[in-house]
Amino acid sequence: MEPSKTVYLDNAATTPLDPIVIDAMCEVMTNYGNPSATHALGRKSRGVIETSRKKIAGFLHADAKEIVFTSGGTEADNMAIRCSVNDLGVKHIITSPIEHKAVLQTSQDLVSKGLVSIHLVNVDNDASIDYTHLESLASKYPGALISLMHANNEVGTLLDYKKVSRIAKENNCLFHSDTVQTMGHYAFDVSEFGADFLACSAHKLHGPKGVGFLYVNKKLAIKSMMTGGGQESNHRAGTENIIGIVGMTKALELAFTNVKEEQKHMFGLKTYMMEKVVKELPQVQFNGNTSFDGGLYTVLNCSLPPHPNNALLLFQLDLDGVCCSGGSACNSGAATGSHVLNAINHDPNRQAIRFSFGRFSTKEDVDYTIDVLSKLLQPQTVKV
Ligand code: PLP
Q1: Are residues 292 and 313 in the same domain?
Q2: Which residue of 17, 116, 162, 166 sits 20 to 30 Å from the alpha carbon of 41, by its own alpha carbon?
């Protein structure tokens, strides 16, 4: 049975489409010409795609040719890593144990094929990178690919990308950053960021699922991972997802235009929720860096003390209409614990819950969630 009320605080897993994005996509839905066709209908579609590419490049202060459309963040991460190894001579990957599986499993796959070695940089208990260790790994393996995410998707801790970029340049390394959780949530300038690859997924910023892009520094000559077509200037075979690309462009436009207001709105909600949690739920701790400068303002990961209801807490929250996650969405149904929480020495007797905010989240959502949680966490309240 559907709960009578739904509160959506799982925006790091995915976000609802913005109605303005839906309108933009509807406008191009009848535009069926294949963008690779030379006739008028094909040229019309090609025009839509190239206008989108230029707009996205403009938001990032990049060149249009540096934007390669993909099916989302997983493909963008795969492309950055696999192309670095296949086309750019990378033999070592320096990454961290708290990256998304799109980075970790891709790197492991290349290790299992004997193509690269992987070196994990230490992280501390708030999920920040040990930059001294990074520096020593980079100087030991010059020319490596450094792959470190801009914000951790489970606990939100932000990367000091300027430091990483400096270390990468000093050691002739390539730098890939999974910016799936941050693109559109902060202003981006590719030269200021200093990475060679940046990954984006539209569904994390009120755009459609199944579309994203990889920013690829124009100095790098990569080839398509897939065979079967010369689309995307030979960087990605397959007919482009025009409707998705238009939706993503509109989603990015909305996000970048209102970035300051959105930061204020969502960081306000995060702070409000933290205050309520501290007041109303005893002994809760927060995972990751929760400051504005050190942590992603859309994510709040709470660590609850042992309680008889903990094992079924997500299920019980769900019954009351609250959508949130145990770790990342990909992990919430998994039998094993979160690799991120394990790597930051999270106490296994505590229950971690990730709440994540979006454009449409409200204070009422927070109030309702805290009410439900307080009831569930009263001593010995077993509901099922
Ligand atoms: N990287 C990070 C940090 C993510 O949070 C996600 C989605 O959960 C992905 C990559 C994968 O993106 P997509 O769902 O577009 O494949």
Answers
A1: yes
A2: 17
Q: Which residues of the chain have pLDDT under 70?
A: 1, 327-336, 380-384
Look at residue 175 in the predicted model and tell me its pLDDT. 99
Question: pLDDT tens digit string along 222-240?
Answer: 999 999 999 999 999 999 9
Measured CA to CA, the distance from residue 66 to residue 206 in angstroms comes to 23
Do residue 36 and residue 93 come from a single domain? yes
Instruction: With beta carbons less than 8 A apart as the criterion, state whether 146 and 175 touch.
Output: yes
d(CA 275, CA 271): 6
Q: In this predicted structure, what is the pLDDT of residue 1? A: 67
Global model pTM greater than 0.90? yes
Nearest CA to ligand 1 atom 9: 73
CA 312–ligand 1 middle distance (angstroms): 26
Residue 226 backbone dihedrals phi, psi, to 5 degrees: -100, 155
Answer yes or no: do 344 and 211 share one domain.
no
What amino acid positions are annotated as catalytic residues?
A: 330
For residue 200, the SS3 value is strand
State which residues form the domain around 280. 7-16+259-376
SS3 of residue 42 by DSSP: helix
pLDDT at position 380, please? 62
Pairing of strands 7-8, 322-323: parallel
Say which CATH number the domain at 156 has. Answer: 3.40.640.10
Q: How far is the first Cα of the chain from the last one, in angstroms, to the nearest whole number? A: 15
Instruction: Identify which of 291, 269, 277, 230 has the alpha carbon closest to the alpha carbon of residue 356.
Output: 269
Instruction: Locate 327 and state its tokens.
Output: 């770790």
Quick one: which atom of ligand 1 is closest to the CA of 209? 15
